[in-house]
């Protein structure tokens, strides 16, 4: 990866650290197991290609995680670099990055001896040794840059205390032990220096397409920006393509990260501006500044997107993203999200994205289509809900009209909600039967919106339905959350990347507004309350005045599951395909996809429920 | 068991049938397993006490099932007597007695050799060999009365094709092969002579209390009735206790079945009449006859109940059911359900129930309390539903008022619904947390309403809540099913038998009628339909005029889950305890009972996926 800090990834011929191979027995409250031997790493350092994915865990980059994925074995191999080991560390996974109900690998030292074990934390954050040891230590090695720990973990262990590694976002957590501890149980999680990092662990296993010899590159990078000393900054920078820049195909792009800023650059996107405007003002500053020209809001067409932990993005060999030429704007907007929780001052940054493009156009232009819900307040989430579901439809009627007979192939997907989003999934349905998951993230975070390559192309034909379902959490809100563009409003969108490009840009839905009006009338009459349902009051105002209780909540759910929809089957955000799109029937599903049955590790061998002792020498006090 | 046909149960010293012990290998589409050896029964016939439970499977009694239950092993041992073996038989279990998606043990013959195997039927009724053989054949033996097959089956096998044996009703199915078949797959299920029988397989393991020496018996039996030659008859017969019959305790009762009628007598109940009336007319005839005096409808207090497959019913040693004495009616009604699907003519019957009672009163009078829903049309089920749920509450307020500080002990339970009932469960909740299942039947059938002893006493204290949930299927109905006494109306009741007796006879609920009225208004306005919600139209009429769709259905569900309730906290069906019982809040549940995790058989040994050959000699063509 270009621009990555080199100290962690360069192989260096340092003396390997020996592990004492000890077998002993321990008693736990759960069971007694035999301790098996630790397999020591051989003297050679692991090759960089062994661990193609890398991410810093903490904002200072003290912990650096590399990993690889074996789909045949259904196993992830982790290599954790600890730059400055004190008295141990915790590494693990949990539903949304919390330290309660987490699944953890723990390395701890009592000042003399060090141990490694698979543990879990209960709802109070108390650590327990796991009865089944599924983080399997493969080795440990000292190097000048720090200690390397190597371990593996099956996707699914069938141990109810363990995290199930699935497609989509995984919330990794870490904690650093700064004092010796006498036992695992003695670790006080709340007193640790700790944090979380989101990654897509199960990267798709995609072969890199051959790249043409006439490929050119263009770096869209920030002009030596001083990163503001605040936790969150969205930086905006306008770039202009040369005059008469002809049509090219972007066939690949990759991040360019200023050395030392790997832990600060959270994600970056390059947008193309709207072709309607002849020119856009130059700008270089925070995206939320009052000084930012309003016209920059018309630069929303995604050309490239990168997020921490992501690698280079390759288009499939048949397709490229059109870029330049008549009918497209010469103006691009680079947006960088700096995440600076330790409030470093005076850090300079010139990160960005390097586009690889070619004038030798590929067979197909790639396109991007929006699936999900229309940005409208008629789709709303009551307050105080832990998992409220909204669904947006791309109907058979729209796909029949807009897709070519040979269909389209979806190869990548970017899921999008605002702050209340917790899960997003799009399912393909044909003849009323669910056929295939297009993309799913059961641990979705609005703070981690990557463009993700799909594991396999999804073919969509005329008459197919694409159903996008978002799950929201509004437990911390006291009034309804309506759909819309605002950060406290919500969206439910899947931007699917596909080829060949069609005219269909939007295939989204929302509940019929007339039926929603009946809902407000109903709530008003049922609850004997003064809910103003007069037409001059806005839909958000009406939602805000609903007296929320389980009945009004359940009836809203029933309405969304029953009322006809208004379809946006659009060529561009303002131009609909011809046809009747109001009061359309909801798609009916007669057959659901079966729940996936987790594959358990074959023939569970002896996995000790006891810590594995490690000889790491005397640790720093 | 008194009155049971003797041929099947008498041990007889007949020559035991030898099994050829053969090990061979078979290939199936699923897997290859080693065939293990069949364990031959030793020469001695099994003792009757080995299989304490017995039931005929078919109306002619050709197949007779005996079984026992081992709770430590979590296994049921079956002994199946086949009186006239042709070319094999099917025996198995399915959700509600259907032959599709069933779990089957199959004995079949090609005319020369015979085989036994564990099979399953798919949704089309096609048979397949099971990849895991969980019906384990233990032996086969010929006797003058027929062939005995002995096999065992774990409650839970963790094979997704297998039926999970749970508490409550199990629908057993059987089929008789009248022609040789070349393979399991060649069996055409729809062409078989076949049927179903309902039993409680998992009988509670209760030690019989010691019985007093001064115990007397009284037989309440039909007076040599000619069983009508029609499939279903409910026969009513009035009996009178002697004048001045003093108070006794019934401490046990058992069925008395006329020999030969074991397969025809489906269930029997003895009811005591209401004490308000000095006399009741004599009657001996069908319960639905126009000649039956109306006053017999006041004989509804259950004294004893028996259903096919049930044994003697013993009261706990501390308690007995009060019977006789001042304040109780001298009149009893015996009701016998004859099930005569083969329309036998001229069969005479004098079956009934033998009561065992004593004048030496036990410490506590036993009582019966009704839990669940009030018999009122406000609780209704929309048409076309496969699993609609209604819930009745016995609230903390009522139990606090009516129960003694030391609480009561529930020892038995009889679940009751009309024809649409599919599941019934009562859960005890304390301080908003579900604590214990009182009684549950996930395969409930309205045609099999036994009084069931609980596996353990359930202690209920003042302030506890008892929540009874019924699941209904109305897929075959075109209009709403309302609550009420009619056979096409519904009930949701758990008659719990407990001690010490209290004044509380009814602890049931129904939705507040005012809220239901709002529902009808809401449906009317939302659907733009003419639903007459005028007060002069009855609640059933209003339900019948609802235009049913998923919205109106879901809103009714939401209403039942939200609206306050009207409580019937009654001393007798007409007399409420003092207090405010209208518009009571619904009990809230903050913690549910966890779903039980089925225990899989320990260390699955080699179980062949291939039929076990049996040498049964030449079978009759």
TrEMBL record, chains A, B:
SMART domains: DoH (SM00664). Its main location: cytoplasm. Belongs to the copper type II ascorbate-dependent monooxygenase family. The keyword Transcription regulation does not apply. Its EC number is 1.14.17.1. GO terms for molecular function: copper ion binding; dopamine beta-monooxygenase activity; L-ascorbic acid binding. Residues 61-177 form the DOMON domain. One of its GO terms (cellular component) is chromaffin granule lumen. InterPro entries: Cu2_ascorb_mOase-like_C, Cu2_ascorb_mOase_CS-1, Cu2_ascorb_mOase_N, Cu2_ascorb_mOase_N_sf, Cu2_monoox_C, DBH-like, DOH_DOMON, DOMON_domain. This is Dopamine beta-hydroxylase. It is a single-pass type II membrane protein. The lineage of its organism: Eukaryota, Metazoa, Chordata, Craniata, Vertebrata. Residues 587-621 are annotated as: Disordered. Pathway: Catecholamine biosynthesis; (R)-noradrenaline biosynthesis; (R)-noradrenaline from dopamine: step 1/1. Residues 595-611 have a biased composition (Pro residues). GO terms for biological process: dopamine catabolic process; norepinephrine biosynthetic process; octopamine biosynthetic process. Homotetramer; composed of two disulfide-linked dimers. The chain crosses the membrane at residues 23-41. It comes from Alca torda (Razorbill).
């Amino acid at each position: 990866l270009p621009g990555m800090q080199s100290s962690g990834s360069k192989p260096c011929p340092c003396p390997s650290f020996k592990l004492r191979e000890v077998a002993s027995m321990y008693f736990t409250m759960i069971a007694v197991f035999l301790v098996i031997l630790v397999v020591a790493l051989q003297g050679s350092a692991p090759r960089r290609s062994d661990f193609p994915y890398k991410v810093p865990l903490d904002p200072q980059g003290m912990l650096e995680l590399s990993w690889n994925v074996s789909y045949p074995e259904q196993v992830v191999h982790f290599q954790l670099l600890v730059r400055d080991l004190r008295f141990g560390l915790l590494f693990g996974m949990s539903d949304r990055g919390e330290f309660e109900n987490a699944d953890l690998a723990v390395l701890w030292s009592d000042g003399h001896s060090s141990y490694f074990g698979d543990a879990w934390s209960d709802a109070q954050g108390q650590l327990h040794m796991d009865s089944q040891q599924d983080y399997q230590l493969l080795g440990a090695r000292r190097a000048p840059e720090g200690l390397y720990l190597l371990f593996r973990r099956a996707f699914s262990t069938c141990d109810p205390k363990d995290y199930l590694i699935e497609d989509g976002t995984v919330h990794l957590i870490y904690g650093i032990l700064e004092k010796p501890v006498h036992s695992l149980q003695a670790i006080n999680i709340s007193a640790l220096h700790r944090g979380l990092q989101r990654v897509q662990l199960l990267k798709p296993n995609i072969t890199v397409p051959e790249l043409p010899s006439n490929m050119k590159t263009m770096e869209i990078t920030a002009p030596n920006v001083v990163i503001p000393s605040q936790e969150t900054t969205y930086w905006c920078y306008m770039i202009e393509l040369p005059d008469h820049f002809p049509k090219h195909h972007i066939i690949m792009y990759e991040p360019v990260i200023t050395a030392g800023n790997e832990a600060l650059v959270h994600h970056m996107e390059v947008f193309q501006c709207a072709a309607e405007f002849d020119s856009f003002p130059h700008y270089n500053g925070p995206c939320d500044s009052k000084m930012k020209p309003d016209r920059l809001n018309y630069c929303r067409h995604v050309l490239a997107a990168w997020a921490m932990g992501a690698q280079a993005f390759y288009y499939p060999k048949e397709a490229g993203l059109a870029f330049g030429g008549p009918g497209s704007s010469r103006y691009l907007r680079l947006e960088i999200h700096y995440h600076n929780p330790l409030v470093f001052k005076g850090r300079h940054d010139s990160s960005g994205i390097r586009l690889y493009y070619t004038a030798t156009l590929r067979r197909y232009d790639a396109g991007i289509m929006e699936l999900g819900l229309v940005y409208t307040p008629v789709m709303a989430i009551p307050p105080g809900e832990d998992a409220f579901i909204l669904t947006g439809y791309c109907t058979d009627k729209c796909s029949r009209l807009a897709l070519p007979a040979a269909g389209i192939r979806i190869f990548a997907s970017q899921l999008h909600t605002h702050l209340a989003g917790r899960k997003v999934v799009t399912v393909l349905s044909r003849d009323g039967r669910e056929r295939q998951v297009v993309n799913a993230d059961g641990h979705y975070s609005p703070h981690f919106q990557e463009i993700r390559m799909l594991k396999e192309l999804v073919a969509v034909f005329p008459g197919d339905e694409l159903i996008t379902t978002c799950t929201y959490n509004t437990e911390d809100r006291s009034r309804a959350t309506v759909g819309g563009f605002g950060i406290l409003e919500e969206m439910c969108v899947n931007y699917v990347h596909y080829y060949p490009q069609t005219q269909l840009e939007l295939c989204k839905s929302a509940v019929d507004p007339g039926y929603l009006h009946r809902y407000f009338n109903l709530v008003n009459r049922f609850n004997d309350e003064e809910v103003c349902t007069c037409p001059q009051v806005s839909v958000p105002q009406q939602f805000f005045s609903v007296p929320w209780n389980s009945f009004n909540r359940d009836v809203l759910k029933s309405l969304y599951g029953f009322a006809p929809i208004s379809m946006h089957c659009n060529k561009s955000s303002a131009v609909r395909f011809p046809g009747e799109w109001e009061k359309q029937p909801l798609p009916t599903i007669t057959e659901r996809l079966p729940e996936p049955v987790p594959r358990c590790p074959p023939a569970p061998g002896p996995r000790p429920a006891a810590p594995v002792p490690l000889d790491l020498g005397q640790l720093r006090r």
